[in-house]
Amino acid sequence: MPFNVIKKKVEFHDVDKCECKYTIECDGIDTSTWNIKMKPTSNGGSMAKVECKSKGVEGKDMMLKANDSAAEMFKTVEAYLIANPDPYN
To answer: pTM of this prediction?
Structure first.
């Protein structure tokens, strides 16, 4: 984990639109709000559109760390959904 302290709060999620928004608070960043939208692709997969708005970011290095943290959270959610697919079918 690239941060000493991190808090994550889900602002909303819409199962039908495959969209969620969450906020993180961590070292060097007042807040970062992430909006993730998933769309199906023609080959049966999906594509994610990710938008991030941050306040209080201390340089590019901290933004890269926040991006890594978001990617880690995305992988965690993906692993959960793969292991527990029934609630979403």
So the answer is: 0.57
